[in-house]
Write a structure and sequence with these properties.
globular; five-stranded mixed beta sheet; 36% helix; Nucleotidyltransferase, domain 5; alpha/beta
Length: 339
């Protein structure tokens, strides 16, 4: 049976699946990432897990996977297949696509940013299914985003498209590891809400889920912390609406698990802020923590359908005859080196 390998690499664990041609999940597995042993050990764990999945496919379905897709956190160069930087995994410039393809017998491998890959799944088969333009924003340890356009997710010229968490919403505010101050994710991520609530309630073990429960119970301190996060989030999202004009906004991540406790005040805050902008439908992500793995499977099938990785064209440098004087012949570009 024809299938692909889908692998979602997280900071502490990996989720994987073998996915059939119609998107059917044929096999699922999880493994620890092993980041406590260092970045090279993480890479080895990913390669070993992929090889294990390939072997399972051969054993169960009589043939190896036709392609593989992998989603990773951090900065990813999709075109070169390189994990440029991941603080979670300790990676710098890991040629993951080439190493995976070699380990898997030469099959094509698609590499994607974890949030964009999850957004691809949410847009095609999840909460954004049918929307021609969507914005996927998971609210977890940080905040990122995926910009969906006609069934694909925009990576940007340098792989940074969708980084809404680093839109400055409170100028001169809290320092951010990115080097700016007042970034959205320092106020509206699940970790930011957890820190603010821990300080407000005096319990250093308190987290965002505890804050949400306290809000639902009517705790005034929790409501103040929560509303500050919602206001910051709405400010950042309206900036995104102004630039992107999405038809659907998909909110996911740990903070979204608060349900109406988050979505009701957020929808009100967004309505209060839009002027000429069109307010998109605001929906809860539908795929949960399976989005990244499912998206990796979609990347793999897309790559297989396209016939493998896109190859960069070999540059052609015109040869200028030695008898030609570029200064007097307007048909010759003087910027081209003469040979």
């Amino acid at each position: 049976m024809k299938h692909v390998i889908a692998l979602d690499v997280g900071g502490t664990g990996m989720k994987a699946a073998l996915v059939g041609a119609e998107g059917k999940l044929l096999y699922r597995a999880r493994r620890p990432t092993g980041r406590e042993r260092g970045p090279e050990a993480v890479t080895t764990a990913v390669l070993d897990f992929a090889a294990e999945l390939r072997a399972h496919g051969v054993s169960e379905f009589g043939e190896p996977a036709v392609a593989a897709g992998v989603a990773v956190p951090g900065i990813v160069d999709d075109e070169r297949g390189v994990a440029v930087y991941s603080a979670n995994l300790g990676w710098r410039d890991v040629p993951l696509r080439a190493r995976l393809s070699e380990r898997l017998g030469g099959v094509p491998v698609a590499l994607g940013h974890d949030v964009r890959t999850g957004g691809l799944a949410e847009g095609r088969i999840g909460a954004g299914q049918g929307a021609d333009r969507f914005l996927f924003v998971p609210l977890g340890t940080g905040i990122a985003g995926a910009i969906g356009i006609d069934g694909r997710v925009e990576a940007g010229a340098h792989g940074f498209a969708g980084e809404i968490g680093h839109v400055v919403v409170r100028p001169g505010g809290v320092d951010c590891p990115c080097g700016q101050r007042g970034c959205l994710e320092r106020y509206a991520s699940a970790s930011a809400v957890g820190l603010a609530w821990a300080a407000a309630c005096g319990n250093p073990e308190a987290d965002a889920a505890d804050c949400a429960r306290a809000v639902a119970a009517g705790d005034a301190r929790a409501m103040e912390v929560w509303q500050a996060a919602v206001d910051a989030l709405a400010d950042g999202l309206v900036t995104a609406f102004t630039l992107l004009d999405p038809r659907t906004l998909i909110i996911g991540g740990g903070l979204a698990e608060a349900g109406p406790t988050l979505f009701d005040p957020l929808r009100r805050a967004l309505r209060d802020r839009v002027t000429f902008q069109k307010l998109p439908s605001v929906v809860h992500a539908g795929l949960g923590d399976n989005a990244g793995c499912l998206g990796a499977g979609l990347l793999a099938w897309d790559l297989h359908a396209a016939g493998g990785p896109r190859k960069e064209p070999t540059p052609v440098v015109p040869t200028v005859r030695d008898t030609t004087d570029p200064s007097t012949d307007p048909s010759v570009d003087p910027s081209i080196p003469r040979r």
